[in-house]
Amino acid sequence: MRVVDPAGAERALAAGRLRCPPCGGRLRPWGSARIRDIRVAGARPVSVRPRRGRCVACGMTHVLVPVWMLARRADAAPVVWWALAAHARGLGYRRIAQRLRRPQTTVRGWLRAFRSSAPALLSAFGLGAVRPAGGRVPAAVAVVRAVERAARSVPAWRVSVLVSGSLLVRNTNQPHVSGSSQLAP
Hints:
The chain has 185 residues and is an alpha+beta fold. The chain folds into two domains: 2-66, Single Sheet (N-terminal domain of TfIIb); 77-164, no CATH class. It has six helices and six strands. Strand 5 and strand 6 form a beta hairpin. The radius of gyration is 18 Å and the shape is globular.
């Protein structure tokens, strides 16, 4: 679950104002998730211990993460977005990896994951296959353009995270079986 204001989310969680995405039940405080070290651009990794909430109706638990984090990724959303936008403008994965000081395999994995999630993201923007004069634009490029058009007063990476539900570069190998965060009521 995305959190824009961590302090406000903590107050809303304590007051029971946050809702469970699947069932709409109230979320209540349920400890914290494990500490995660998230790599940010040009700085030391930031240690984050996200809050966890549990639905009183269905018993499912949810990790409340800041909007600048991506699900199951060790790099911050602005870093990943920069790589995706640079690639859409023609920069290759090797140069992107060099500029970000990340392994080439990491950057190539982001680009591959983004290409697989791009068609779904295009539909979130109400765009189908985008066909400009002269041919078809790859879906990933069309998503970058759509996000940048939609981002007027906020950073484009933030729009991309909110539209994608933090699955901008979706991990195709989920570490847990579906529903594994559900506890017995």
